[in-house]
Prior knowledge:
Layout: H1 2-14, E1 34-37, E2 49-50, E3 53-62, E4 71-76, E5 81-86, E6 90-97, E7 102-110, E8 128-134, E9 139-144, E10 149-153, E11 160-165, E12 178-185, E13 192-202, E14 208-213, E15 224-230, E16 236-242, E17 248-256, E18 260-268, E19 278-280, E20 282-287, E21 296-304, E22 307-314, E23 324-331
Keywords: Signal
Protein name: Esterase-like activity of phytase family protein
Organism: Parasphingorhabdus halotolerans
Amino acid sequence: MTRLFACLSLLFFLVPVTYVHGPTPPKNNSQYINLEPIRFSSDNPLRTSVGRLEFLAGWRMTSGNGDFGGISSMLALADNRFFFLSDAGVLIGFTLDEQNNKAVRPFIAPLPDGPAKMNEFAKEKWDAESLVYDPRTGQYWVGYEHHHELWRYGPSFARKEASQKVPKMQKWPQNGGAEAMLRLVDQKTGENRFLVFSEKAPFSKGGYQALIFDGDPAEPDTKSVRFGYQPPDGYNLTDAVLFGNDQALLLHRRFTPLDGVSAILSVAKPSEIKPDRVWTSTKIATLKPPMRVDNMEALAVTEEGGEKIIWIASDDNFNAVQETILLKFRLLKGKQKRKGPPAIPGKEKAGADPGFSSLGQ
């Protein structure tokens, strides 16, 4: 009987079989987004802080919509309204009801337009990686990694207004292009300047290339100059956002087979950026297992009660073993550095006021 069963099994694999496929199921265009509360640490439910970050809340985000996921950048707008941009060129948005863990007024929709296919055989893959917004005009700027293009869209993403295939970006790696972008506003003139960061294009003096645009980077006549950014060792920059007076927050990621995924958050001063020089930042927190961490790619800052609130979201790469999470932190104050040794009573220099150096020295 065993031999007969083996022969029948072999016959099943050897005899040609015709498979009949049914119709392709319709695409799931559901606009529903589910939010599931999560803890910060899997091994210590009481842990609520790391570095200068205090964990306030977190959610695992899911949707039946096949276009949901792949988050690469985000915006936090008024009234807890969030926009997420996926690397497939899809916009995801909702108003966050934190008390009830609900995504209110959600939507999932593609951008109205994007770069052309690289050739007639290529699939349409926009790979949108960076996003900034001007609340005064309602305009948005998007950086496309594979195509090395920067686009400007009108209010509500209604239409494309301008785009530039930036000459200085054309030798950047296809998978290491415009990963992050910052919009700087001149306090005197109100004019915009932009910083665009490559994830993987080496800079001759260390770190990776970045560009300073003295104007709108989507306009073809806007010139740019290079500088370098040195991320933490072994990490790559994934997003950046401005907060406070001359402060930038920068998000970095790393994956190794031994340690898995981790992320570093750091701060830096944009005023210290110089053309053809390397800009650096100071680490304020490291996220790594057993903390809830994935491929952290998106960053935003809001304010509550005079305190800075940091939002970080992950890119699941449309992979079933990864997840899309949104984490909320309070930014804790850093330690104040002493400008010099404390004064010793009775030891001030003759002729000097206590605590001050004499003029002319």
